[in-house]
Sequence to fold (457 residues):
Amino acid sequence: MEDQLIIDMYFARDEQAIACTRDKYGRLLRSIAYGILKSHEDSEECENDTYLKTWNVIPPTRPTAFQAFLAKITRNLSLDRYDQMHAAKRGAGEVPLMIEELEECIADQGASATDDESEDEELKRILNSFLETLPQDARKIFMRRYFFGDSVNEIAERFGFGKSKVKMSLSRSRDSLSVLLKKEGYNG
Amino acid sequence: MDKRVNATRLLRAMSDVDDKYIEEALETSASKRAVVTPLRRYSGVIAIVAALLLLIGGGLFGFSKYINKSKTASETVAAHNQAVNAPEMFFSTGAAPASAERSNDTAPAVEETIAEALGVDGGLVTGGEGNSYDYSIANPVTVYTSLEDLEDRCGFDFDVPDSVNDSTSCVYNFYDTAEGLAEVRYLDDDGNVICTVRKSPVEADISGCYDCFSITEKVDVDGLDNVMLSGNASGFGLATWMQGDYSYSIRLDETVSGDAILDLISQIS
Fold:
């Protein structure tokens, strides 16, 4: 079924919209959640939370890219759940590794993080411009690692690359991001 | 600590990147997945080895011809001339080897059918003077013109309705999967597929239909296992079931009543 038809069903408050969303994207959403949480049970709960959130925001929101829209919701919900599960202690799985890797992009004397929304907008702008500059393969690898939470092995298997190539690509991308963040003054 | 907080924030901010980058990463997994098989990974080495083998083989072939001709020639006064002309013979671009030749007359009708179905020339490259050289890549789908031919290829019987919605115009496909899959498509007057019936010796959903249906019902039918009907308020458009060691599916372009789809199922075995 076309995404637009499913969205129309949400607008019509037809509960079948959720069933159609699950049929079409359930597997993808579970895989995104599992990449972060490494728990089938928690992943399924995040998937269901995604449907509820989608039901609550459509309408008025009318997503132009429904798949990416759902993926973002699941990712955020999964990260929230991850934070709850691992509050005050370092958790397992890919998330701490991803954070550790991304720390390389932040200068030692980095600016203190604030909850300033404008700063989040700025970070979003920087990330988008950074992704735009990456070669396509490097961008896909970066997205698989830091958006979907895939491990190096999973990325290598997915694209048919060697693990060393994936690691090298990620390292170069992080270096590039670090340079851009410094240039944009994000690191203070 | 700030550094870690900022890195966490960076990770969070990844959720807000443009949709196009998310879809790009997803598309790769859905349709453009670059699977590097060992053959592909070492394609460069294989190409070099193949080139060397061709050179060596060609050299040996030419040399053996040269030796044979030289032996004959040695008994004649033309021996010297033949030896001089031999290099030209090695690199002659004359007729292709007999094994590579195939008359257009002998090309199987089925390939023509595939070619017609695909709208291409089937990969046959005409070599002129009635010869053609087959450089076609193996196609997983073979199109047959009769149910009997399809059954011969599958190795199992396949009973299907004589007609669906008054259509008796059918295309018979064989999918060269691990277990093999037989498919009959019913066409309307404009050539559009109105119904697809499949059978395969596997225990799986072989319908290939990923449409979203609002209604899914499991029904009991004598002699059949796991008959699942899928459709919407207007009727059913898909049925999957098992009978013995075979899985079946029927997919309709337009939904029909429950009785109508059960009637079609009863004609399939």
About this structure: The CA atoms of residues 26 and 32 of chain B lie 9 Å apart. The helical segments of chain B are 2-13, 19-30, 38-41, 43-74, 79-90, 109-118, 147-154, 258-266. Chain B touches chain A at residues 2-26, 28-29, 33-36, 40, 210-212, 214 (CB under 8 Å). Chain B has a mean pLDDT of 71.
